[in-house]
Design a protein that fits this description.
- There is one protein chain.
- The protein is mainly alpha-helical.
- It has two domains: about 50 residues, no CATH class; about 55 residues, no CATH class.
- The chain contains six helices and no strands.
- Helix 5 packs antiparallel against helix 6.
- The relative contact order is 0.03.
Length: about 160
């Protein structure tokens, strides 16, 4: 058995997994972490010194910080014919369902946050009463139509 040190020079040996490549031309070579942070802070302060006069100008506060209130109505994009063509009619049913679902979500959050069983039951009863008041008539009509249909495709 030959020793690997005797017949292969160390420069030609492959790098080991735990070794880190050190480059002497790297800007952080030979510096500690504190020195690196100090250098970066100095560079940041130097670059910010060029904008110091701009940073001294106070920000102007508006009564309402909306862009559209600053424009005149005659130049608004909402007054164009192209915008008016793209507006769809307001869907009242979709809006009503959205509001119902928001209320159901609020009840679900309230139900999940209750610790006592009695409170949970009360919230569940509120949920049932609310859903009954909003969907009961339509649901009963659909159930009646389903039972009256003779064929599967009609159901």
């Amino acid at each position: 058995m030959y020793k690997s040190d005797s017949w292969i020079p160390e420069e030609e040996m492959p790098a080991r997994a735990g070794l880190k490549v050190i480059r002497k031309n790297h800007p952080d070579f030979g510096l500690t972490e504190d020195e690196i942070q100090d250098r970066n802070e100095f560079i940041r302060c130097y670059l910010m010194s060029e904008f110091e006069s701009l940073l001294m100008i106070p920000k102007q506060q508006y009564e309402d910080d909306y862009f559209f209130n600053l424009l005149d109505d005659e130049y608004s994009a909402f007054n164009t014919v192209d915008f008016q063509k793209r507006i769809e009619p307001f869907n009242t049913y979709a809006y009503a369902v959205k509001k119902v679902m928001e209320h159901v979500k609020d009840l679900a959050i309230m139900h999940s946050s209750c610790t006592h069983l009695q409170n949970r039951q009360n919230v569940y009863r509120k949920y049932e009463a609310f859903v009954d008041s909003k969907f009961r008539d339509r649901l009963l009509k659909l159930v009646h139509q389903y039972k009256q249909a003779r064929y599967d495709d009609r159901r």
